[in-house]
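hey can u run this one w/ adenosine-5'-diphosphate bound, need the structure tokens asap thx
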Amino acid sequence: MLGELTANEELRARLEFASRLGALGADAHDFVELFGALYEETARAMDATVFLFAVYDEASETVQVIRQMDRGVAHEGGSFPLGKGFTSQVIRTGAPRLIRRWSAEGPPVRLLYGTESGELVAPQSGVVVPIRSGERVLGVLSAQSYRPDAYEEAHLLSLGAIAAQAGSHIKRLHATEQMALEHERHALQLEAVLASMNDALLIVDARGAIVRLNRAARELLSLDGASLVFGQPLDRQRLEQWPITAREIAAALVPVIDALRAGTSVDEAEVELRAGERRVLSLAASVLRSPKGELQGGVIVFRDITGQRDLERLREDIFTMAWHDMQTPITVIRGHAELLLRRLSSGDRDPNAAKAAASAIVKHADRLAELLTTLFDVSCLEAGLLSISQWPTDLGAVVRDVMDGIRSTARHDIEVRADQTIVGEWDERRIRQVLMNLVSNALKYSPEGSTVRVSVAADEHHATVSVRDDGIGLTSAELAQVFRRGYRAESARRVTGRGLGLYFGRGIVAAHGGRMWAESAGHGHGSAFYFSLPLPEHGSDGPVEPRT
Ligand code: ADP
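ok here u go:
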């Protein structure tokens, strides 16, 4: 009776063991959790006073102990190279070992736990089984006891069954670890790519909420971290607190995000920002879908194309100006040349008529050349290719010389105060160009007979030239724009001009490290234009000699 019961109990115990084995370690997310499950099951089946679970790395021939249990206390694992102990033997041979009496059978086990200063544990018997996958040994399980003869063949079989379960989980966890590493590597690579991109990039989810943005996008929006709430759609952001440029961009983003939410990509479109410094952005957006085709959101890319657009516009402007301004001289040159030809063919030898036609041709050819030079200079300035050759130059002498040349033909009263010698390292030809433009403007925009005053003055650091007239003057709104390329005030329209002189002049002065500015008390009150150039620091290079 008793024997039957015992047999029944034993059968039940075996069945329970078998069903537990099926689920063993299935929940483990990592090797430490797997260790816990393996230990628990081993402790049910046998004396597991000391228990060890190790995985084996074939490539480095290293045994990595995940954890060790000793008298109910779990100790940190560690790794060691494949050696001569039982664990290493089992790994090498792939065959299990039953050690009935350790002292008699073989290399005494000396486990040393780093946590217990110097304490050596010496179990008396043990079972060590390999964890295998086909021919390969993935690791070992080992149960030990401080008693001799604590284990029999049956224990070896039980631990073998547990080890068989462990095999598939080790493979699963290795694969997961590998995948996690791969993911991490991909994420890091992606992160690096995003950060190094010059284009601004925004990622939105399927609801249209901003979930990521790269460094360039953050700079473009000039938002600090606090003012952009991740995971919130644009209409729930505190847009009123955003800087004006960011709000302009947000307004441009609304239709793009709507399109993405509807599953439509957006081809390249342009956005012009006007609130701060004028900027032209090109914007494109692509829908992101999961492999199954579900809408996941989208990527929006911004590129600053201001420079590109400006250059295109400059080319168009230059072309239009050239087209417009060359017509007259070309027509005049052609007309006079034709006239000259006709005279010569008809035998008309009137030298005065021929001379007049020839000098008209020369004059208009000069105008053409001057026009081409200006257009060339302006495009060089714009492209950052303007060459400045600096030599010791006396600004007083340059002003006197330019004004002497002008005085002979001007119908204005010209006053010059430029007696001093002011020497600096400047490009004389370019400075002449700047001054000529200011003086010819003063003459152009003021009535004949009025006075134009030109003076040069210097302090310790700068030489400043001023050109004043009693002409049409400028309002403060006009003053703010006179240095823009192609700008011409309404009041100046009756006089011919291209709106390039001041723009170019300011560029030349800036290339010398100086600045140019204008003052006027309004229409009818005359204008004053100034430019100042830096002087060499005293005493640093000794006296500078003007070029002769
Ligand atoms: P342009 O004289 O060929 O139009 P500029 O670049 O030299 O080109 O000048 C730009 C504009 O600035 C002029 O069209 C005019 O409206 C204004 N301006 C320049 N100089 C004067 C001045 N001395 N008095 C009044 N307006 C001026």
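The pocket of adenosine-5'-diphosphate is lined by residues 437, 441-442, 445, 469, 471-472, 474, 482, 487-489, 492, 497-503, 527 (CB under 6 Å). anyway lmk if its weird
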